[in-house]
Specification:
- 2 copies of one chain form a homodimer.
- By secondary structure, the first copy, chain A, is of the alpha+beta class.
- Chain A has 14 helices and 16 strands.
- An 8-stranded mixed β-sheet of chain A has the order 6-10-11-16-15-14-13-12, sandwiched between helices. A 5-stranded mixed β-barrel of chain A has the order 1-2-3-5-4. Chain A has a 3-stranded antiparallel β-sheet with strand order 7-9-8, with no helix packed on it.
- In chain A, helix 5 crosses helix 7 and helix 5 crosses helix 8.
- The longest helix of chain A is centred in the N-terminal third of the chain and has 23 residues.
- Chain A is globular and about 85 Å long.
Chain lengths: 461, 461
């Protein structure tokens, strides 16, 4: 009977010495004079299945020609395996090639560089590394949905196309149906966006937070999980122009409550991935980041530290370290500081109450008038994983901040009005999904945790 | 102790006659001389909670001033309710206004038109109708993830920004970081896209299918679930320029197998929504589409009909109906035909084997050389809900179709190459998420099932 490999593992006891049919691909093929071994994988399970055949088979010579990458149907007998690290193997009875693969198939069973594989983005999930990365990506997405849905959050699809900040920010892509070669112009020679599909200049968004807040003011607890766009012309390991974000927003929740949620959520997601992707995590632990599994297990059972930005700077100033950037009470903290502080506390650290000048306009100003109720979560090895804040719920104070920070009030009018119509204390945070994946897999380049990454000058496939 | 209303329902037995604290919003306020009744809702449960207070309270007169829309904190005693259709009510001890709401708050406890509420998109989830719609949207999204994940599918985030079809299709939005007022030009006076962020003209995509197939050729079973964009300048009830799609793709799966999956998935999702949103479905059944609940329950237990396009046309031709569009073997079927055929079979109908001329280039041509192995699922009341096909796995046949249909081969090169590297028979389908929501809720305008809809000339908030 036809089975996915993942099903075979679940039903192993009943399948031993039975005939099974598998369909999948040849990952490797080792030929001997009288025998052959096919490393078979159908993509439903990390580990290959060993298919054994011998010269007794009528089409032995034909089978020996089988090339790596080919799609095959296998009929064989499942037997307990004598080989260590493998629970069973399949003694081949019959093999059919469903789709051939050429001699120069790019994904050969050898070590390829990640740079080479990036150029083969449509084939690279067929390797152990990327097969594991994108399975973890899928499981991790599910973990996030499970956490929020089981805690009563409503999932909101905030819009990607937006006209907010039309005249402003360079951070957003413009989107249009106008013909670039024949842009319509108005009487003053300006581009006439009234001819565009939406009748005005439109953008693709960099955040769902503002729209998320509107829904939190109704459902109490909401989250977004969708793609996000930034135009940054930056070629670093942590920047991509298209990535996914999770942005929960919670009414009747203060900063302490927000940290409780962030901590609980992260532990739940990490536990889920440890449980659902044990083979993948072992693989990363062995071949990508030594100690990864222990790091993740430790996170689940640890208590995250909570400390103010001010006290962090105290610690940094006292540290016997030659800083590249001198820590200061009114300043952001640098990557070297993040690293020091997570090592100092030997675990995740919530840093709260940041100088208001370096944080966003919608964050709640503390009673000191100098800091805002913001919180960044720093984790060992990956730096900032989440950023959140209590939001300013007072309309007048929000207006003051909007003027101070030079925000165009017209574009956020409706958002501010939420404060007039039954506003309340509320908080939210954002988590970059790829940042989380980098933390979970040890793979340190954002290009390698996105199926088809988009970065400056690079938009292939 | 502080509780979400949804928690109160779960713990009702232990909470009776206990003091509880609730935080949420005033949906209605009915005042009498000696009494008052507040319809309270915190967004975690469809039904309002009745808060009862009387003139014994010290701040009785103050409380009587409470306006609809206000955010409040309530301390009171939970008691079994004497009123029909309500399991409990809360006897008020103490009330605190957290956020006031003005006399002219737009969402008053009366019937508003859907057109008016569309203009209040950021407030409309506070109404019964939209509160129910967007909770069902969230539950339905989770149902889809649960179905595919529990059946071993890998969730793939296919890219939204793409350079595929750069010179062609009017169906896609162009995306750019160039300055519209100062477009860089090359020597021939053409727009110089080498100056754009990606170094070429880029688009936002209308489908994840091609990228999904690449991942199916590795994981066997994958699905996408993400936003999709179309530039159609069409103001109908079923068109939006931004919507969400689910696109599963399955290797080693033929058309019959695909229909099995579609049927199983749809029944599972409908069951999930019936179980998780019973109050919402009852509400739609009473106020939006009479008979909705029965329709959904019937779908779960029915066996979907499978019939060829040819045989459908036979039935249509024999029907004693004056058609606006005459049914024909070589033609698409019209909305009136869809309606007739689902009524004829009194349930969902898979229509298979369509004339190849009216279907996409990547669909597998049947042995007759005239039809393709495509399938549309038609459901009573909502028409086409899913469209899928077995894909052409033969490289040469695919090339023939590409030429016949005038597809730009360069832009789909890598996709075609999947046939060379261990290609296999495989199938997939697409389901518009909003189409499914229209079917599930009875709400018939796509603008009313999307949180912030984007349609021609309309891109507010």
């Amino acid at each position: 009977m036809k089975k996915d490999v993942v099903e075979v593992y679940k039903e192993l006891d009943t399948l031993v010495n039975k005939e099974i049919v598998l369909e999948g691909w040849v990952r490797n093929h080792r030929k001997q004079k009288e025998f052959g071994f096919i490393d078979f994988n159908d993509g439903t399970y990390f580990q290959n299945v060993q298919i054994v055949y011998d010269s007794q088979l009528e089409d032995f010579l034909e089978i020996q020609k089988l090339r790596v990458g080919s799609a095959i149907r296998v009929v064989g007998t499942l037997v307990s395996s004598p080989k260590e690290g493998q629970e069973f193997e399949v003694i081949l009875k019959q093999l059919e090639v469903l789709g051939d693969s050429p001699e120069d198939y790019p994904i050969q069973p050898k070590r390829h560089t990640r740079e080479f594989l990036r150029e083969q983005a449509y084939l690279r999930p067929r390797t152990n590394l990327f097969g594991a990365v994108f399975r973890v990506r899928s499981a991790c997405a599910m973990a996030i949905h499970e956490y929020f849905q089981s805690h009563g959050y409503v999932y909101v699809h905030t819009p990607l196309i937006t006209t907010t900040d039309c005249e402003g920010s360079d951070q957003m892509f413009k989107i249009t149906t106008l013909d670039f070669q024949n842009l319509p112009k108005d009487e003053e020679g300006q581009v006439d966006f009234s001819k565009d599909l939406f009748g005005k200049c439109a953008y693709v968004t960099g955040t769902g937070q503002l729209h998320g807040e509107a829904f939190a003011m109704c459902y109490k607890k909401i989250y977004t999980f969708g793609p996000t766009f930034r135009t940054e012309n930056s070629n670093t390991k942590t920047h991509a122009n298209e990535f996914w974000m999770i942005e929960p927003e919670i009414a009747f929740c203060d900063l302490e409550g927000l940290m409780d949620i962030e901590e609980d959520m992260l532990k739940s997601v990490v536990s889920y991935v440890l449980t659902h992707c044990p083979k993948e995590i072992e693989f990363f632990d062995s071949f990508v980041e030594s100690g990864l599994k222990e790091k993740l297990e430790k996170l689940v059972s640890s208590k995250f530290v909570r400390i103010t930005h001010h006290d962090v700077v105290d610690i940094l100033k006292k540290a016997d370290v030659k800083w590249e950037f001198m820590p200061d009470y009114g300043e952001d903290i640098a990557k070297e500081h993040e690293r020091y502080i997570t090592e100092y506390f030997n675990g995740p650290v919530f840093i709260t109450d940041w100088p208001k000048e370096i944080k966003a306009w919608y964050m709640k100003v503390n009673e000191d008038g100098k800091t805002v109720a913001a919180v960044d979560l720093e984790v060992p090895g990956a730096g900032e994983l989440m950023g959140g804040s209590q939001r300013e719920e007072d309309y007048d104070k929000l207006m003051t901040r909007i003027k101070e920070m030079g925000v165009d009030q017209n574009t956020v009018d409706w958002f501010c009005n939420l404060r007039k119509f039954g506003g309340c204390y509320h908080s939210g945070f954002g988590m970059g999904f790829e940042r989380l994946l980098i933390y979970l897999t040890g793979v340190d380049n954002i290009r390698d945790v996105i199926p088809f990454p988009r970065t400056p000058k690079s938009c292939d496939y």
